[in-house]
Design goal:
Elements lengths: L13 H26 L3 E6 L5 E6 L2 H9 L16 H37 L12 H36 L2 E3 L2 E3 L9
Antiparallel strand pairs: 1-2, 3-4
Amino acid sequence: MGRRKIEMTMVKDGSSRQVTFSKRRNGVFKKANELATLCGAEVAVVAFSPGGKPFSFGQPSVGVVSDRFLHRDKRKPNHGKNVVGSSKDGAKVSDLTQQLNELLKQLHAEKKRGEMLEKEKEKSGFKAPIINKLGLQELIELKGSLERLREDIKARVSEMEASSSLLLLAKKPVYESGRPVAKKVPNSYS
């Protein structure tokens, strides 16, 4: 099933608009970071939320890029050099940005792994799962595992009852006509 194109119209619902803004803002900032990292471009993005709160991203910083934009005829372009100082500083910033991106990827992967482990933890063990949140297939699987558990318990109880009955019989003296009869011990000498 492919993606379908979403028509670009303003989202009517306020809370949906805020969620859409947050997701799209993160996407724009990520693309701006990729552009700066891959091409050595100086990038600045400023966005105001529907509530009027400002959000910004800049590489090397929003202030440096906006100053350069506003005073472009007074400054020479640095041709990929970082405004912070030497090209050594620019390489350091680039390395740190790359490390940050790798750490963010690792964080995202670990969050997913944690969610998967949490789901597995809920499925296994004797903690009662929240049945209202389970789907049909999960409920069928849970029912099957509970039925198997019940059968295993029945078999184990039967085993234990049989062995305890045998133990009791072995310990009780045998009675004939109201008097205990001594057990015959097999003679191994015959």
